[in-house]
Amino acid sequence: MADKQSSGWRHWLDVLARRLHGRRTDDVPPHLRKPFIRRGWRYTTLQFTAGEAQSRMLTRRPDVLLIDYTRTMMAALLWQPQPRRVGMVGLGGGSQAKFCYRHLPEARIEVVEINPHVVALRREFRIPDDDARFVVVLDDGARFVAARPGRYDLLLVDGYDETGIPEALASQRFYDDCRDALADGGVAAFNLYGDDVERHLDRLRRSFGERLLVVGERAMSNRVAFGWRGDPLPAPPFGLPTLLGRLPVGVRAELMPVFERVGAALLAQTAQQR
């Protein structure tokens, strides 16, 4: 039965990949719900249900990181200020994809999204077209990550549906695969939200051990977990100014308060582990 289900799922993805270029999304597995857009003079939001925004952007400034946790996740650049290859699980409204495309011109950016309805809205959210350094792949995120060991300097995991984090993106195997998808010295950032955050953190600790830093959001209930490969003490012992000085100028200017907060937490944890 498992082989038949797997074969059927691959068939759906193959069909969707062929149809997506023409923006047809009629052949879609029924559990992948179709989102809708709510556009206002200030905000444009992607929603699966009324009253709850899955993604939000400033209508007139589409590449600004608006939501606090998306800004915190980008603090992963403290570990890898000039990543050569960036992976993302979950497209949504493309906030982080657009930010990386703008501020990391030397990076190759690969985004995986399972829901073709979401991908079909990419132009509504001013997400760049595929080109030599940016691509959106229609695929299952867990399978995508598992097939790319040692590939990414930076991996951003923010895969949600209308019910929360899908089970395929919550398993111990998935978190192990995220660790293994990192190049030496690479870092992953995970957005964690919901009633079962501790379950995710337990699994992340099994995957990354002491190479894990968890930072809470001050105005939200999200927590962001950073896990990395390589030296268990990745921060140079020269203090926060040295960490900040490695960042691209444009990134540092836009996200300085976040970098200061996460950098201080990283250095404090480093000192405790010594």
Kindly, what is the distance between the CA atoms of the first and last residues, rounded to a whole number of angstroms? 50 Å
Helix coverage percent: 25-40%
* Main structural class: alpha/beta
**How can the largest sheet be summarized?**
7 strands, mixed
Number of helices: 9
Give Rg in angstroms: 18 Å
Please provide the ordered H/E string of secondary-structure elements: HEEEHEHEHEHEHEHEEHH
Set out the fold topology.
Layout: H1 2-20, E1 36-39, E2 43-49, E3 52-58, H2 68-73, E4 85-89, H3 95-103, E5 108-113, H4 116-119, E6 134-138, H5 141-146, E7 152-157, H6 172-180, E8 182-192, H7 197-208, E9 212-216, E10 223-228, H8 240-245, H9 249-273
Parallel strand pairs: 4-5, 4-7, 5-6, 7-8
Antiparallel strand pairs: 1-2, 2-3, 8-10, 9-10
Helix pairs in contact: 6-7
Task: Provide keyphrases for this structure.
single chain, 274 residues, alpha/beta, seven-stranded mixed sheet, three-stranded antiparallel sheet, 9 helices, 10 strands, 35% helix, globular
